[in-house]
Amino acid sequence: MHFDDRLATVLRHRAAGERAARTQFRQLLDLLGSQRGGRDQSLLAAAWLRLAALSETIPAADRAAMINDPGLRFRNPELAAHLAEDEPEVAAAALARANLTEDDWEALIPRLPVRARGFLRLRKDLEPSTNAILAKLGILDRGLPQPETQETEVQELETQEPDTPVTAAPAGVPDQTADPEPALPAVELPENDNPPIAARDNDTIGAIVERIEKFRKARSNQPLETTDPRLPLGEIANDDGKPAITGFSFTCDPAGRVDWADANIAPSIIGTRLNTGPMQMAIRFRQPIRKEPMQFVGAPAITGAWIVDALPRFAQPEGHFRGYAGRFYRAAETADLSDIDEVSSEADRLRQLLHELRTPVNAIQGFSEVIQQQLFGPTPHEYRALAAGIAGDSARMLAGFDELDRLARLETGALDVEVGRCDFAAIISGQIEQLQNVLKAKTAEFALRIIDTSDVTLAQSEAEALAWRLLATLASSVGAGEHIHVELAENAGALRLCCELPASLSGKPDIFATTMKPSSGALSAGMFGAGFALRLARAEARSAGGDLVRVDDWLLLSLPLLTVSGSAPSPKQLNGAVG
Q1: Angle subtended at Cα 509 by Cα 507 and Cα 513, rounded to the nearest 5 degrees
Q2: 307-316 pLDDT per residue, tens
Q3: CA-closest candidate to residue 574, choices 562, 560, 563
Q4: Phi then psi dihedrals of residue 54, to 5 deg
Q5: Per-residue b/e over 91-115, b at no fewer than 16 CB within 10 Å?
């Protein structure tokens, strides 16, 4: 068994200086914030006392900055309760940074000081049940109420009875409600600097009357119902003549509920939940939402089919998830999308999935290498062997993910192979010579014939990867005693590699869709089989300006040649070479 003695180690050292005190305070924050019981109670008590003692020597602003550190682990409600008793900036940082469960919040909130509960209203990621507890305790809003508008004040004054004075004027002050139109009489101030109360009341009444008069004049000059002038530019209009809403911006909270939208659509959309269908998984994993269809039923302005694009928002610097910001478009605007756009959307989803898969596989590979290399101490040889096997499997999985990502990006045009200049004939000759040694065990071979060739417009590394992908796939499918003819020559302005298909592939109706895998581990066509490897090679060839096609029992790879001057050919030349 392994015992965690980190807390005892930290407490064993005395913080003699200011720098040591800050370091120990940060260490205690991390250790106390990550543990939830299970330690020696006397040790915990000593840790709380040391934390309180250090708080007296470190300024509140510095402690708040340490609490806001994104690397701090803060999952202990006891630490949140402890820090909530400190200065306002420290309490606010702790309650904003704490990453607690719903049950933890429900148990913690009643224990918090009254002044500290209000800080929780700054968070938007609390569960509805937690917000309900805050509401029961009187924590209802995060800000001050909106001030009454000028129009509201005027309406209140105008609804009063005609014979009711606006305010009770002191004796000796003329009645201002009898006829509000005449100007107020001037009030002479005495020699001292402080005017009498009657004069100050007159000033207040005069200001109100002046505001009423301005409002009446402004309203009398406007029609009862105004509309913005518009030119007849072919806008789509509803039955009532108003332009139809074809798009609007919005934001939503972490639960996927719309909390803001453009003013012209806000009353119809705010409160709508987006976490339905495919978007539910995207919101759960904080992934971008791309061209997702959504159907609304309700007010005429919003009813119908929509397309939504949105990106996740994260607070700085703590990194809390704050929801999404994006835009809705009418489905009619995107109804004419081409098949390429649909493929691109599917490729984006695939790449997002691969990004999510790489994270745990990378972690598994890293931990297995730590065990295999005994970085944390001696490890039995049996465990090291298992760890080495896991590391190898993880590496193969990551290589497969890279191939999937590369194919998706090539087929959607998001990635182009690197252009350059290389001798493709030399590459083919060298790789076939290497493969011959492997094929001898099967009494099989490649029969290569090269006619005078020129350089191609492809970088050396790209050409080597393409050639090996193609030749290794064929070699892994060769049967015993087979002789595969390979010919490399110029044809119609392009360099063409013609490879005879092995019997195991020639019988397949679509070699680019076959899932056949090699029978032995000496050569591998890749994690996903021969069909996928050939499809990836075809995508690479097309990106380079060539192609990979099947003609009867032959596989033909064509690549564009360099021009006579040695420069890269134009797209027109490439198209002519391929055709």
Answers
A1: 110
A2: 998 888 887 7
A3: 560
A4: -65, -30
A5: bbbbbbbbebeeebbeebbeebeee
Q: Interior CA angle at 152 toward 147 and 158, to 5°?
A: 145
Given a cut of 90, whether residue 498 has pLDDT beyond it is yes
Question: Tens of pLDDT along 80-97?
Answer: 989 998 898 999 999 988
pLDDT tens for 326-355 read 999 887 544 444 444 555 556 667 767 777
Closest CA to 166 of 221, 130, 195, 207: 207
Query: How does DSSP assign 53-78, residue by residue?
Result: HHHTTS-HHHHHHHHT-TT-----HH
Report the alpha-carbon distance of residue 439 to residue 176 in Å, rounded. Answer: 111
| Rounded distance between C-alpha atoms, residue 445 and residue 480, angstroms | 10
Spatial separation of the C-alpha atoms in residues 372 and 561, rounded to whole Å: 48
Sign of CA dihedral 82, 83, 87, 88: negative
Q: 484 in helix, strand or coil?
A: strand
* Residue 270 binned pLDDT confidence (cut-offs 50, 70, 90): confident
Place of tokens 């924050």: 29
3-state secondary structure of 490: strand
* Exposure string over 220-229, b if 16+ CB within 10 A, otherwise e: eeeeeeeeee
- Per-residue pLDDT at 470: 92
Contact between residue 91 and residue 84 where contact means Cβ atoms under 8 Å apart:
yes
Tabulate helix, strand, coil % of the chain (nearest 5): 45, 15, 40
pTM to 2 decimals?
0.41
Beta bridge partners of 422: 456
List of residues 6+ apart from 285 with CB closer than 8 A? 356
CB-CB neighbours of 41 under 10 Å: 8
Q: What angle do CA 263, 124, 321 make, to 5 degrees?
A: 100
In order, the DSSP letters of 124-176 are S---HHHHHHHHHTT---SSPPPPPPHHHHHHHHHTS-TTS-SS-PPTTSPPS
